[in-house]
Structure formats: C-alpha cells, structure tokens
Design brief:
The chain has helices at about 20-30, 55-75, 90-95, 105-115, 125-135, 155-160, 165-180, 195-200, 215-230, 245-260; strands at about 1-5, 35-40, 80, 100, 120, 185-190, 205, 210. By secondary structure, the chain is of the alpha/beta class. The chain has one domain: Rossmann fold (3-Layer(aba) Sandwich), CATH 3.40.50.12500. The strands form two sheets. The protein has a four-stranded parallel sheet, sandwiched between helices. It has a four-stranded mixed sheet with strand order 5-6-8-7, with helices on both faces. Strand 3 (about 80), helix 3 and strand 4 (about 100) form a beta-alpha-beta unit. The radius of gyration is 19 Å and the shape is globular.
C-alpha cells in the first residue's frame, strides 16, 4: 500500500522546511503498518497569508488537486490532505477513484468516537473560527465543546518552536487544561504541526485523563482503513450531488474548455 501525504508547507521546495518534513515523515511511519509506504511533500508555491482568507485558499487548492491527480496516476492507493482546512477534499473525492482523506474530518470523527466532548486548542483565533465552521459542516456540533481555548503565540515563537518546543508546549498545556476542566475529554491540537512539538519533547498523549489526539496518526490510519474497505466494495457514495464522478471524458472536455479562461488575472 502506498499513501501520499500532502502538506500545506513548502517541504521539498524550501530547505528551511526540511527538519519539519523529516519529522512529519517519522510521524506518518510511526502510525502506519511496516509494509505501508508513505510519500510526504509540500507545495511549490505559497503566500503565507493564504490560510487567513477563503479566497486565497481557492488559489492554493489548485496545487493540492493537481497532486491528487498525479498521485493516482503514479499508483498511490490513498491521498491524505494534511492541511487543517481539508483543502480540496470534496472535488478530490469526485475526481479520484482512490480514497481521499481530510486530516480534520478524520480527526473530528475519531475524536467523537473516543470521547464525549472534544475541544479545539490552537494558537490562532482564526483557526478556532474556521474549525467551528467545519465542525458544523461535518455535523458534529453536539460533540464540540466551544470555548476560548486559544493560546497566544507570536510569529517568532512559532519559528523557534521546532528547535525550542518547550515554551509553546507549556502554553498549549495551560489552554488544554482549561478545556479539560470545562468538560473536554478529547483535545485536538490545531494546526497538526502543534502535535509535532509533543513528538519532539518525548510525547504528550493525555492531560488529566483526557486524550490529546494526534491528527496525523488519525488521518494515516483512516487512509489505511479506507483502502482496505475499498477492496471489499465499501467506498464513498457516487450519488450525483455527493461524490459523483464526472468521468475521464468529461474531465478531459472540461480541462480543454476551461484552459482558455482558467487563470488568475489580477
């Protein structure tokens, strides 16, 4: 089995991302069966502010979709969107015949199974709002403990965190402890890169008995499971309006037709 893990970073395109990317590869392999192969990569182009605006996410998502199509052509069995916004999830499921997994969707549903209420703990307030919207979209509002579980982190702290993780981990733990005291039984670190700090400091899997979910592990195991289930005929619905596939001929026609106008003219 081969799985493509798509990061929203510039890993493989920017040497400064190498340490992060290598650790991410370790995280993926730790969760997978020994025989499962994983390829981790980022995107060639990135405007740092893309994560703040849905309009810029639209531009950014084209790189994800192109890599989805490439992954299927190259024989990968599943594609994992390792971006907190599940960028390109729905069109990807229409376009590909292999399973496409969104890291957030996988984490939220697993958290709903493993505990009573889950809380999102993040370092950016816009992420908390975006997650609230995604949770509503995925139909899991009743399992979501809403609250202000945002710990402040400056840009310089985030940059230093891979080499000096302990200060940020301390801030995270304080926000997570508040969420647990408020009733959370599962904590989801957002973005998933936050969990990498725990990985670097020897692991952190629970606070006062409440699970701290590893989003990367959740997505990778979901990928393996969906590949296995596909072999026995269980896969996404192909009902039109859900994940109905346009088919190769229509895709080719659309590609040729829209190539004349599909560009960014600003």
């Amino acid at each position: 089995m081969k799985i493509w893990y798509q990061s929203a970073t510039r890993y493989r395109y920017d040497p400064s991302q190498d340490e992060f990317g290598k650790t991410l590869e370790e995280q993926c392999r730790r969760a997978l069966r020994p025989e499962t192969e994983v390829y981790v990569t980022g995107v060639p182009e990135r405007v740092e502010e893309w994560r703040f605006f849905k309009s810029l996410m639209y531009y950014h998502s084209s790189q994800f979709i192109n890599n989805m199509l490439r992954a299927e052509k190259e024989g990968y069995d599943a594609f994992v969107i390792g971006c907190s916004f599940d960028t390109g999830l729905e069109p990807g499921r229409e376009l590909l015949s292999i399973p496409v997994i969104g890291i957030t969707q996988a984490s939220l549903h697993l958290a709903a199974m493993l505990g009573e209420l889950f809380a999102i703990v993040t370092c950016e307030s816009h992420l908390a709002e975006r997650y609230r919207q995604m949770i509503r979209c995925y139909g899991l509002e009743s399992k979501h403990l809403q609250g202000n579980y945002v710990f402040p982190a400056s840009e310089s702290e985030l940059i230093r965190a891979p080499k000096e993780p302990k200060p940020l981990v301390k801030k995270f733990k304080a926000a997570a402890e508040k969420a647990v005291a408020d009733g959370a039984s599962v904590i989801i670190p957002v973005p998933a890169t936050i969990y990498q700090l725990f990985y670097r400091t020897g692991g952190l899997t629970n606070i006062d008995g409440a699970l701290i979910l590893d989003p990367v592990a959740a997505a990778m195991k979901m990928a393996e499971m969906l590949v296995d289930l596909k072999k026995v005929g269980i896969e996404v619905s192909r009902k039109l309006g859900v994940y109905g596939s346009p088919g190769k001929e229509l895709l080719k026609k659309a590609s040729e037709t829209y190539a004349k106008v599909f560009k960014i003219d600003y």
